[in-house]
Amino acid sequence: MNRQDLLKLADKYQSPLYVYDTEKIISQYKKITSAFSKVKNVKINYAVKALSNINILKVFNKLNSGLDTVSIQEVKLGLLAGFEPHEIIYTPNGVSLQEIEEVAKLGVQINIDNLSILELFGQKHPKIPVCIRINPHVMAGGNSKISVGHIDSKFGISIHQVPHIKRVVENTGMHINGIHMHTGSDILDIDTFIRATEILFDVARQFKNIDFIDFGSGFKVPYKKDDISTDINELGKKLSTRFNEFCKNYGKEVTLMFEPGKFLVSEAGYFLAKVNVIKQTTSTVFAGIDSGLNHLIRPMFYNSYHYIENLSNPKGRERFYSIVGYICENDTFGSNRRINEISEDDILCFHNAGAYCFSMASNYNSRFRPAEVMIYKGKDYLIRKRETMEDILKNQESVTL
């Protein structure tokens, strides 16, 4: 999106504001499907946790995407957005057997990553097909907080426990119809990822009637100019060849699945915030905005980088600023960033704000969560209203003291 369009949206809907460009979402979806065009059966399941607004889910429904969900609430959102139950896979972690059973009643594909839950579910529901999440013990994420395939991770069943899985399957008579892994986010080393897929192939061979293999996701997108990212075409070429070989040797055309979230929506999102104050200290010039970690926690949570530009003064001389929020914590979005000269009331734009931004927002400091706007076929749509005091108080019960 261009600068003028974003400024008009900030004026129309006020700040802070999330804006999502669906053209970018669609192009990213086509990019990944094109990369694996040589595989007969491919299914892309959008990871709802990245951005869960029901209108964004409807866009993915129009693209014939499936959904990757991690909670019963996400499952229900998907159903409300028009997805059929068989188009949704449910991959929770640490949830109760009761929630898994409730999701199973909805007809959704179940994915289990815990031996004890697998055994309990198999004993009670041996006729319901189940996918198994494997931990390949491969470190492939870009940060310890988003790497989930290593040996100390809470996610998945260890590859060393496959004999236990097989014993549970034999004892319960349950049907394993899929094998799954997710190594982590911001994958750059394709060969490391391929090594993890080989481990998954080895596990899949030990189950005779699988319908799909889910390779997770975690593909890195660029966060700044000339930034490196996952070469999805190279991955597509290498993995497609190996997957087709597997299917031939397995004697069945199984489905190749991915569950991208950030890859599909990150670059489509923009977060707009107004500058409240310029504060000069003995060593730093701070630009304080009308937002904070309550709206965009990623830089504070796992040191993510968001390119920040001054939409209001694109030709001003560049100076160094630390962009900070209004929360009573150290909510620094970027330190000593070289940005066109900033004044009070300027609108700053944070790029890559489509994934894990609004979905991780909160009411910390009793602040309102912002509005969300979606651009679809050149028209802007308000897809979530800005919160008010009524929203803050909605579920609070007032008692007489």
Automatic annotation (TrEMBL):
GO terms for molecular function: diaminopimelate decarboxylase activity; pyridoxal phosphate binding. Substrate binds at R298, Y302, E329, Y356. GO terms for biological process: lysine biosynthetic process via diaminopimelate. It catalyses: meso-2,6-diaminopimelate + H(+) = L-lysine + CO2. Its cofactor is pyridoxal 5'-phosphate. Specifically catalyzes the decarboxylation of meso-diaminopimelate (meso-DAP) to L-lysine. PANTHER family: DIAMINOPIMELATE DECARBOXYLASE, GROUP IV DECARBOXYLASE. NCBIfam families: lysA. This is Diaminopimelate decarboxylase. It comes from Tenacibaculum singaporense. The gene is lysA.
